[in-house]
Amino acid sequence: MPFAQIHMIEGRSEEQKRAVIEKVTAALCEAVGAPIETVRVMILEVPNTNWGIAGVSAKDRGR
Description:
The protein is an alpha+beta fold. The chain is 30% helix and 29% strand.
């Protein structure tokens, strides 16, 4: 059973997250031949204050 964890800075719309789940599922099915029913996708949202880029929080970088 393929399982994908996607970490993103919070703030995406429900529609965007649906699209991520759909496209990641399709990619796993195509890449490894897994039946769609066996694919799991988890989106973990992280506050921009808890996400660092080059030593600076994403919030301080304007993200």
